[in-house]
């Protein structure tokens, strides 16, 4: 029988909580370069590709062979900017969480298959290993309500904070956490391919007690999060 959340009856214009972990719970990110490469793939897939500009650069008489190869590579890479929006993410040593919105019925499936296989090839080549990187196919949970959507972003961002440091970090100490979209949500960083705006519209920009940061810092987690929490 398929594992829970492994079957994905996709529908257009929907949100999904996507997650996966390493085979046998092994690490899928071993250093900062691994995190950076995974994030760079997200960026390449989710930022609009200006093919006309890339083709125009190829006509330059001074273009180097290296740059030309980079342009050809960029033209070949899949792009999902018209279909997929990344709402939130967190990357942990042995697993990841992505909150995605898709326009088409199968956009997320195509996107995740491309991302997963591409990162697996990179990881296996760099770390001189063979075989499956992930424990199973990625899992996908349909997000059904605004309330579930809000609490899911909190779950994802809190997941990226070390358990021993969560309370201290959220009270304003230095942010010592795994790569995540939390900085975009509290206005400390702006990234074109991360879209916190549809979540932040539910929170105040001027009242700290009603801010997103305050929401994440709340200790209690409502029962609704049980629908999307997982045993990593």
Automatic annotation (TrEMBL):
GO terms for biological process: DNA transposition. Residues 11-159 form the Transposase IS200-like domain. One of its GO terms (molecular function) is transposase activity. It comes from the Bacteria. PANTHER family: TRANSPOSASE IS200-LIKE DOMAIN-CONTAINING PROTEIN, TRANSPOSASE, Y1_TNP DOMAIN-CONTAINING. This is Transposase IS200-like domain-containing protein. It comes from Candidatus Gottesmanbacteria bacterium RIFCSPLOWO2_01_FULL_46_9.
């Amino acid at each position: 029988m398929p594992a829970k959340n492994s079957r994905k009856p996709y529908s257009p214009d929907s949100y999904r909580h996507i997650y996966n972990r390493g085979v046998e719970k092994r690490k899928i990110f071993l250093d900062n370069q691994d995190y950076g490469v995974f994030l760079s793939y997200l960026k390449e897939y989710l930022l609009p590709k200006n093919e006309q500009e890339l083709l125009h650069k190829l006509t330059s008489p001074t273009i180097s062979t290296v740059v030309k190869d980079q342009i050809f590579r960029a033209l070949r890479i899949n792009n999902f900017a018209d279909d997929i929006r990344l709402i939130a993410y967190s990357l942990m040593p042995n697993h990841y969480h992505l909150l995605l919105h898709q326009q088409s019925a199968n956009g997320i499936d195509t996107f995740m298959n491309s991302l997963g296989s591409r990162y697996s090839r990179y990881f296996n080549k760099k770390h001189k290993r063979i075989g499956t990187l992930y424990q199973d196919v990625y899992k996908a949970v349909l997000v059904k309500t605004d309330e579930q959507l809000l609490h899911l972003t909190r779950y994802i961002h809190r997941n990226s904070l070390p358990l021993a440091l969560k309370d201290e970090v959220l009270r304003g100490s230095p942010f010592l956490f795994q790569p995540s979209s939390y900085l975009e949500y509290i206005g400390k960083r702006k990234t074109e391919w991360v879209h916190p705006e549809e979540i932040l519209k539910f929170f105040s920009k001027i009242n700290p007690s009603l801010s997103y940061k305050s929401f994440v810092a709340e200790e209690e987690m409502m029962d609704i999060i049980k629908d999307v929490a997982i045993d990593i």
